[in-house]
């Protein structure tokens, strides 16, 4: 969302040459607010302002922009200026930026960055996208178990400007193995002479670098953590994930779940709708649309095959679209509920039969309700459109009701089962997209419809 | 997710009469972990253990359970014991519990609760569900602008056990008007003699009690806040919303978006799938399923009305289900993208024409792709099923392609437009559920299909 209120003010200030006012605003306001106020300007104009802001604040404001705007700004800089900006950025944000620029540009840039930062960048970039390692930051506070509470507070005070958070500090042994956690609150409440080793919490909740980022976010949510330590295969502390990362991970995962559920491929970034070009949107959406159109032709063949039946019992054609839609609706509902329950860790693949049993009960209730509705509909109005010769209205009503009931039952169970199976196979349950489900239960529904009708009508 | 690993251990400890071990575990472990370990037991068994735990820790563990389990436990208590438990609970959690018990029981309970807590409960309960006022808590730290940094730290140290967070403290004037914010980090970094009024941040980001809870959560996300102050109509500070509330609000809103998108009514709680009975699930899902089944009959009437055309040009029936499905798929995709972009505040109703223009471009690309696919399909395979007398295969191909292209274009625009209109009218964009959309574009699609076919074929 571009800020249309503040941006013109900035333009006014620029044209009135009130540089000092702009700089004061930039340095005294929350970086996210500054970024929003500047977002109405071009990347070049933004950089003209930022270049005069204090380097540490400049890096924070710069980090608030979308990566593609960051790149546009960076492209106007010489290598040295860009390297110095990179050095000042928070470690996790600069890795995100560096991952988005071409490899040759990145390689050209690295030698201009100080060795400590360069190694940090190499290390943070080495983890696979979507893992805890790829979202963690390396700006965390470390304490020795031998320090006293007073020494620890003094140390945190000195380090505060460079750390993502000083509210949690981690205690490691000589081999950097994570052995404890202490909060600033605990430090303040403890006697100044207390030893960290005696007052720290030894049961530290952590994740491994290779764990899924969503698992890390779920732990932060479950235990109300400000930050979660990330350890490597040797139990060494290598990073932390903060609560604000968790919020962003959830936001991204929600976007992903929703887009996958609608059979949309692509990067599934949050806040990328407007930035994504129509052509890219087309590419992301078209693959499944086309595959499903192919699959949809199968329904057509079934209708085609049963055209004799449809000709003789025209009433069946009237109920056909409703039957197909209803299967899609009930199947999608149960798929969405199961996918969500899996996503928030409420259920696991082990609960397969519990879920199946619950959905069967719901399916029977839905099926019976719809059967009664359709039977009533056939009985009440069919005399007007004329019952086909040879079949009583009652028989037709029974045939259509039975087919609908069976269709709803099958569709609901397919909707609940497919995400559970995907989860069991360690696939994302949301791969079972609602459009795929709708098209599938269209096919099963038409088969059920026509074979039930044939059977009941003795065709 | 019930913990099936730890719960048996607890049972073992109970049967071995190792009460002391259980109590030690309860008092030294994170309350969320204790609640998970105990979740395999019956509410009565859980309470038997909790009743021996220290009151303040007991209240924290109790607060971690789902409200319905809390109520089961509470029902075994006498009024006095329940009132004392309520008094120890975090203010926001106890209001959630009290809102879920019958009114007469609540009214009977209140006199047994101390006046300060009773007034706090009355105040927090008074805000409408879904507003910032309804999710805030009243356990926040307040400082005077006249204090020094040292005095402020001493005060926070004294108050720490009773406050939700001491990392942010709020500064109010004599009339309780919110005038500043200071973090514990700033306090520690400031000279001990500095006056709060001189070092506090005067530009405090806040929300009003009547603002939507999602707006509060979005502010916490945008500005990476640990807590967000909530003010009333007189700018008085009345509560705070913490980052962990924001995470829960997003989780709840996402469940709600997903369920609404699938036309499921009800409470839209996160983690409520298993707890909700099959009957309740049926009630939540059946209303829209039935309404849409009614609407689906309209499609049936259209098919029925054009049965003469279908009889003469049997090929049309083969493509009919695919055309209906494809409209539903493309419409749902664009609805989901627009709903999500609105939810994360990336777009607002003001962007209506920008969104419409983008979706038109995508729709044209999708429509052309599908038209080419269908035309090729008709041209390649139709000779085998035999072209109907009087119409060339080319004419049929053009008719079906044109109808499909037009259907995809309409469906995509309907899918993008309806949520934008809902947002414009200050309704939740997710009310435009995918099943409703699918059923609607089925109807428009069939009308487009048959009228295009009639027109091109000159029927």
List the helices and strands and how they pair.
Two copies of one chain form a homodimer.
Chain A: H1 6-15, H2 19-28, H3 31-38, H4 43-50, H5 55-64, H6 67-74, H7 79-88, H8 91-100, H9 103-109, H10 115-125, H11 132-135, E1 141-143, H12 149-159, E2 168-172, E3 178-183, H13 184-189, H14 196-199, E4 207-208, H15 213-222, E5 227-231, E6 237-242, H16 243-261, H17 278-305, H18 307-312, H19 314-343, H20 352-385, H21 393-424, H22 434-457
Short summary:
With 459 residues, chain A is mainly alpha-helical. Chain A is built from 22 helices and six strands.
Commentary on this structure:
Two copies of one chain form a homodimer. By secondary structure, the first copy, chain A, is mainly alpha-helical. Chain A is 65% helix and 6% strand. Chain A is built from 22 helices and six strands. Chain A has helices spanning 6-15, 19-28, 31-38, 43-50, 55-64, 67-74, 79-88, 91-100, 103-109, 115-125, 132-135, 149-159, 184-189, 196-199, 213-222, 243-261, 278-305, 307-312, 314-343, 352-385, 393-424, 434-457; strands at residues 141-143, 168-172, 178-183, 207-208, 227-231, 237-242. In chain A, strands 1-2-3 form a three-stranded mixed β-sheet. In chain A, strands 4-5-6 form a three-stranded mixed β-sheet. Chain A starts with 5 loop residues before the first helix and ends with a helix. Mean pLDDT of chain A is 87; it is low at 1-5. The interface between A and B is large, with 112 and 113 residues.
